[in-house]
Design brief:
Shape of chain B: elongated
Oligomer: heterodimer
Helix content of chain B: over 70%
Low-confidence stretches of chain A: 95-111
Radius of gyration of chain B: 18 Å
Low-confidence stretches of chain B: none
Largest sheet of chain B: none
Structural class of chain B: mainly alpha
Helix content of chain A: 55-70%
Number of domains of chain A: 2
Order of helices and strands of chain A: HHHHHHHH
Amino acid sequence: MTSTLLERIAAGDPSAVKECMDVFGGLVWSLARRMSSSAADAEDATQEIFLEIWKSAGRYDPALGSEAVFVTTIARRRLIDRMRARKRRPRTEEFDETAPMESGAEVVDSGALAVEAALAARALEQLGDAERQVLLLGIVDGLTHSEIATATGKPLGTVKTHMRRGLKKVRELLDSEPQGDD
Amino acid sequence: MADDRRRLDDLLLMRATEGLDRESAAELARLLAERPTGDARGYERAAAAVCLAVLGRGSSLPRGVRARIDANMSRLKRDLR
């Protein structure tokens, strides 16, 4: 049976480490840019995330989801921790490479990266505009519920309700499909 | 009981979206110990899937950042062991 990329990292395969950066470097960097206060902070975060991925690779279980979801989960945890540690200081500079897409503007074709992405895209299409906006501001841009309430003018309780409904919808679709790498 | 379930779901959602402070993280650990749930990471997986749907493979990792990580590779490998 062919080993997954993360299984190869856990086994100490040096080529797998480089391959991991080739495959997931752009994704991790894009997340770090969105959830960091500066380019320097994003660089530090990216390095920390890859270190964490390499340390955690042995815990990857293909039965629980794709490698892309595993990597993204680790990246988000680390970025959220860093945001909390710096008291969620907002960005102090704009990144040259900031993706032009605004939250909710479009969903990319990432089916080749993870089957879960296609399911999440389907779930996003099924959400109302308000729910989708809240979900993307919170999940992709890293805003807190309070920050979303301020940004959208919606009551905090409404923001929390939209967030819960949106994520539950994604969970339901993920749970309805077999998990694992495609 | 229903209140505990609701609180547990609230904490799992918060962990997946904006993180938890130490007190809330300890409360979540206690509730999970008392009331094991089938999929405590479900919201985090869903959040990751949303990121993948929106960002795809993302933009290229800048050469400088990649070079920095490569330069630290040997130290990282030692950390892995």
